[in-house]
Specification:
19 helices; 44% helix; 2 domains; Rossmann fold; 472 residues; elongated; 15% strand
């Protein structure tokens, strides 16, 4: 269980309910590694506005009952797939690649993992994650040994994860790069401009395909690579993420949700009728926790000025790092102290197992800044728990949240603080709107963002890339 703190920290005692919580939460924790959480493709057509790049493909979201029951990745049986990650950590990119690895292993694919950048000293997180992979009969290789080169040459498919992983090609494969590129699928998650460096992506035009998590991100990469680097994107496939069966089982189990809700609220020291607005992301300026706290503080002031009768409101920041507080997190805590809202703001240590917190809160705030999230999986996870979402009108969030139906969108940046504050007030004062948005969000997840939706989409991508690899 993650650690909690507020301005006035409190002890966390072991209780009998913790055992129940751990039993229920176990499957959810596993889901973040085994479940196909990265699977669901948007059904909308993507218009080809420019002719300087290859088309961006999107697949229809309808699937038959037979497709849901049958493993669409069964054709990958006995094939050799090399996965190359720029790092191995608890961040989104590496974990998504691990989930894909476990899906492939479930289809009896031979999977080999390489981490390009590893610390010289033993890292417990890396050790634990590598052990999980080896427990599932995956082979873990050193990134720079000859065996890595040999595996790349004989593999049926090579998947590079994130733009930064492109550095591995020249550093390790060297003169063998041209032989490997025709069977590379490049999975890109980044939305920040500093990733557009030729040293990272100079081989991008020559790979079999690129897979990107949202249409917004695909469009961004398409234009930026052309305008800034003078290169074109390869054939590009947009594949939205999706919720695993394990997460959906918890979300749809009313007893599990109630136990988790009661326990987490007890740990946080909040009452059952209090309203919890949470942001669940790694604590960093790009995720917008500072602007969320400003909006939350403004909402508290508006509530007092307007003499509104609302339940007591709390802000929950899940994604903190209690052991190594950054300058940014120190700023957040100082802001809370300066505004004297310590009793209403709670910091929770970063965790893989977000289901208990989704069960315990009332509204998710997805406040990623600038270009927003590439996709933002936490958004569809929250919608599975029938939570309304207050998100920035940027990035993949705009492809998930239907403004005014499953939540409300506000502008990124400082200009979004007051609109977010007003949206907090609107939901705090209207329980029926919260419930209606939550139900509609859940329906949208069931329609578009489940495991079986993405299983079929990812299989279509891999089939096309494998065919190109054979021709190459």
């Amino acid at each position: 269980m993650a650690k909690h703190s507020s301005a006035s920290s409190f002890p966390i005692q072991k209780r009998w309910s913790l055992m129940i919580l751990l039993c229920i939460a176990l499957s959810t924790a596993i889901a973040f590694f085994i479940g196909a959480s990265f699977r669901a493709c948007n059904s909308r057509d993507y218009s080809e506005k420019n002719n300087f790049n290859s088309p961006i493909h999107s697949f229809d979201s309808q699937s038959s009952a037979a497709e849901k029951e049958e493993d669409p990745l069964s054709f990958m049986k006995s094939k050799l797939v090399l996965l190359v990650s720029h790092e191995l950590s608890l961040s989104g990119g590496p974990l998504l690649l691990m989930e894909l690895a476990f899906l492939l292993r479930a289809a009896s694919t031979r999977v080999v993992w390489i981490t390009n950048q590893k610390p010289t000293e033993r890292d417990e997180v890396i050790y634990s994650l590598e052990q999980r992979m080896m427990d599932r009969s995956m082979q873990v290789l050193s990134a720079k040994e000859q065996e890595a080169v040999d595996t790349a040459l004989k593999a049926d498919l090579v998947i590079l994860n994130t733009a930064v992983a492109g550095k591995w090609l020249d550093a390790v494969l060297q003169e063998n790069v041209p032989r490997v590129l025709p069977k590379v699928l490049w999975w890109i998650h980044e939305m920040r401009g500093h990733y557009f460096k030729l040293e990272y992506v100079k081989h991008l035009p020559f790979v079999a395909g690129a897979m990107i998590d949202s249409h917004t991100t695909a469009d961004y990469w398409k234009n930026r690579t052309h305008e800034r680097l003078g290169i074109k994107m390869p054939e590009t496939y947009v594949v939205h993420l999706g919720n695993s069966k394990d997460l959906m089982e918890v979300a749809e189990d009313s007893v599990a949700r109630r136990v988790l809700r009661e326990h987490i609220r007890e740990l946080l020291g909040v009452r059952k009728d209090d309203l919890l607005f949470a942001i669940i992301n790694s604590v960093s300026r790009g995720k917008g926790q500072d602007l969320f706290l400003k909006a939350f503080n403004e909402a508290l002031q508006l509530s007092q000025e307007r003499k509104l009768k609302v339940p007591r409101m709390h802000a929950v920041i899940v994604g903190s790092d209690m052991s190594a507080q950054t300058k940014f997190e120190t700023e957040l805590r100082n802001f809370v102290a300066d505004k004297k809202i310590q009793d209403s703001v709670h910091f929770v240590n970063k965790t893989l197992n977000v289901a208990p917190y989704l069960a315990s809160i009332d509204v998710l705030v997805q406040n990623s800044q600038a270009r927003g999230e590439c996709f933002g999986r936490i958004t569809i996870e929250a919608m599975a728990f029938q939570l309304p979402v207050l998100g920035t009108a940027a990035g993949g969030t705009t492809e998930i949240v239907v403004n005014g139906t499953t939540g409300w969108l506000h502008p990124p940046g400082k200009e979004g603080v007051t609109p977010l504050a007003e949206n907090i007030i609107r939901l705090a004062t209207d329980i029926e709107t919260r419930r209606t948005m939550g139900r509609k969000g859940y329906s949208r997840v069931k329609e578009m963002f489940l495991e079986h939706h993405m299983s079929r989409r990812i299989s279509l991508v891999l089939k096309e890339v494998l065919q190109k690899a054979k021709r190459g």
